[in-house]
Amino acid sequence: MDFSVLRNLISRYCVGEEYWVDSRTVYIGHKEPPPGAEAYILQRYPDNRIVSSKYTLWNFIPKNLFEQFRRIANFYFLLIFLVQLIIDTPTSPVTSGLPLFFVITVTAIKQGYEDWLRHKADCSINECPVDVIQQGAVVRTESHKLRVGDIVMVREDDTFPCDLILLSSSRDDGTCYVTTASLDGESSHKVQVTHSHTQLGSHKALGSILPAHSPLSLNLFVGRINIYKEQEEPIARPLGAENLLLRGATLKNTEHIYGVAIYTGMDTKMALNYQSKSQKRSAVEKSMNAFLIVYLCMLIGKALINTVLKYSWQWSSDHDEPWYNQRTEIDRERHVIRAFTDFLAFMVLFNYIIPVSMYVTVEMQKFLGSYFIAWDTDMYDEDLGQGAQVNTSDLNEELGQVEYVFTDKTGTLTENCMEFIECCVDGHIYIPHAICNGQILSAASSIDMIDSSPGGQRRVSEGGRETDHEDLFFRALCLCHTVQVKEEETVDGIKMGLHQGKPTSFYISSSPDEVALVEEIKTIINTLFDSLLHVLNFDSVRRRMSVIVSVKPVSSGENLLFCKGADSSILPRVVSGKVEQVRARVEQNAVEGLRTLCVAYRSLSPADYEEACHRLSAAKLALQDRDQRLMQAYDFIERDFTLLGATAVEDRLQEKAADTIESLHKAGMKVWVLTGDKMETAVATCYASKLFRRSTQILELTKKRTEEQSLHEVLFDLSRTVLRERSVLGSGSGNYREIFLEICRNCSAVLCCRMAPLQKAQVGLIKASKEHPITLAIGDGANDVSMILEAHVGIGIMGKEGRQAARNSDYAIPKFKHLKKMLLVHGHFYYIRIAELVQYFFYKNVCFIFPQFLYQFYCGFSQQPLYDTAYLTLYNISFTSLPILIYSLIEKHVSVETLKRDPSLYRDVAKNSLLCWPVFLYWTCLGLFDACIFFFGAYFLFDNTTFTSNGQMFGNWTFGTLIFTVLVFTVTLKLALDTHLWTWINHFVIWGSLLFYVIFSLLWGGIIWPFLNYQRMYYVFMQMLSSGPAWLGIILLITLSLLPDVVKKVLCRTMCPTATERAQVGPLSQCSARTVRLGLHYNSRWSCSSSYSLITSVTQL
């Protein structure tokens, strides 16, 4: 019996997932090791099948029903339906069962369709072709048939079907290039390597691999490979992340590779790291649940009141049961059970006050309404060839309630397209000359850069080099990078390498800064070098990269180490050079918003080079603490630099980014910029994007300031400035996080610098503050995913850092400028529509059921229904459902141009203003008033016996039908009065619904239906319409019911109109509203103004 699965589960969940390590032995090609080498243990592992679907054919019905009946309204109606089946109730079980069945069926079809799409996606992945080596031949099979130990051949531009260990590459140096855009959002090319012992004839290799990895990290992997050769001891070599090819990554710039499958299916790192999105609930849904509880209490109260009044009325013998239905002695003794039964019967009679169909209508509105975003041509980008995408439709209305916007900087506010601006060599500043977009103009001969320093006359040309430092500086830029040349390709859906529709060569790199530098330097100098000896790759801890090269002009036997990185990483390691001049220029460029890099070099003697090679080799072969030993080797090699200079590139601001931020400010939203960039560069971007203004008072919270003062004192000063309160901190240390967030909430803008991805998500915890503001996060890279998932609404930008952010977001847009229409137009409309939908549903159900409550006072609390069974069943399903659905899809209370021109209209619907308790009470009271008009109006009309033309009197069902007719016409015309945008669709559904009710009533009461055991509605509707007083009563009651709402709207629009109401009748009057803007910025400064902006380096707090 195989206990491997059970053993893995115990070790995983008992130890803790973050510490769980999966250890296994994988035999390459399923070949047994030589006798005596090691014990051959056959192990079983899952196949390569990926499952993302939620249901299967056999569990769909029970699982879906369980999930649907977890919703309180569905469960409530299920109980009511069961009560109707068990006890004798005044209404048929069909009246509750049919609407419930309709809601459950529609929802199940929707969820089943969505899961069917997931099944199709899984099948397309599991059935994709894969090349496997079997008995020395390449055999094509399907992906789901892969097993651990199979040798797989992957060709260029193919995706790795499972987690592989690289055995061999078609490249001579044993390397291959991969992109991991679908895993971490990075579209740059990464280098993976193989061992020299497996590079030749890898598909014939005989060996075993012992991997041990942590599933939560894509970049951590430790293992060992044992290579067996005839008559020789096995060769053991370490394996690391540089040897691992992850499922989902794509092979690039390499013809083909061979690899052995070590993790398949749901054991792959991609599957183990899959983080399902937590279910986000909108403020509207929370309001709906709160209103539902209120109406449930009203229902219980009505049933309780009627039960008590019934037995109080029957307490007297004069009001006991009639002579033909007298109670027996047993019935009199079982009064408690009878009372409880009556209570349940009243609950059934009044249960229609709970709008069960509201939930399915809301779901349909959200699902269908989401297509309007995808169809919006204004949010279509020609360069990407894509428009906005909706990944979830549950948060459409939340777009109209945003109070805080958290945005990334690079690639979100900026284009992430670097342009070379200048370089500084030994204090001399060089700027591009006669260069446009990396191309030399025809008027330029050989001069590419000129010295723009004061009094500088030197220049760099192709023909000669002026100084050694200039030569070394440009050689460093040419050599110290990871740039590659590539023809046309598509990286994660983004087409690259097209110029005027024709494929051309282009540069690709892990950093756009490097591409900008290489494109600029390529025409300046022709570097002659023997070989690139070592590459010390960039990492976020060192914040620099280095290369060791052998350059021909250098004296024999010596090599050069060129290093390029952040100023904070390079300058402390410099021992010579014009440090102060370069530092001053770097700081000035940072203030101007430019991205800077420092360049230095070191000459390595033969002894130094040998020592460097020894340390690097020993660190790479280490089986334990490999990363730590590599860092120690890098630290030893990268020292004693001579500073050469610095570069400056510009990341241009996105089109209309400043206009978008300004509009968001006018709409009452506070924008926070969360970036990992340095303070000076981020501040300059904030000024350029109008997040900060010159009159804004900047507040700083930096490491430097906290070193000079205690954190308590700094926060005290900030709170005193912003909150104008000395007592906010008190004498104790207090909760610094809460104090800090309180300061932030009183700022109009915040800039946080040097932030890690997790810190971005932690700042988003402001949504849990006492005000519970609605937050929105927008970013374009994988480092923004945690922030996007944490916020109430997450928006991903289809940028140049891959599509990870777009995939994990709720909505995806091509550019930052499209956020303006997404919020100010679509969000505004969605909230207005769904707020009206929710309030209208509760209103029309109060109008529907309250006359039934009043009727019990006139029928001896006998639980006699006022309406016919057909009317009870179809009221919410057919007669009144379609008009409100269409209204919630196409209503526009103001034009799109007005909303875009005046962002302040967004404030009218902020803070869930249309679903607050006062508005809810108004709609409820309006429903109660209309219900009283319906009932008592019809009652007083019937006070004197009303005769038809043939002398017959109106009966009980005629009375109920008259009220129901007034009810249907009133609630439908109420919606017509609220409609501002009239189209043929509105006319069709509103007047068509009324016509459908009339036609149905005529058919329902005009035909003797053979399947009914009663015909109580026969000829009732026609008899009512044949009476002149009935026509007069219907018209009069409809007018009286609609009159109060019309008067209220006229008075409100005349005496205290809102900004939206003024915009509906004409140009919006200019209001002099003083807007206080406070920019909160991590790593920042304070300046004097009436508004504030705070800047802080979060990593230091």
From TrEMBL:
Domain P-type ATPase N-terminal: 42-96
Active site: 408
Gene Ontology, cellular component aspect: endoplasmic reticulum; plasma membrane; recycling endosome
Broad enzyme group: translocase
Binding site for ATP: 408-410, 514, 538, 564, 595, 675-677, 754, 760, 783-784
Record domain P-type ATPase A: where: 129-190
Record keywords, A-Z: ATP-binding, Magnesium, Membrane, Metal-binding, Nucleotide-binding, Translocase, Transmembrane, Transmembrane helix
Residues bound to Mg(2+): 408, 410, 780, 784
Family the UniProt entry places it in: Belongs to the cation transport ATPase (P-type) (TC 3.A.3) family. Type IV subfamily.
Protein name as it appears in the record: Phospholipid-transporting ATPase
Gene: ATP11A
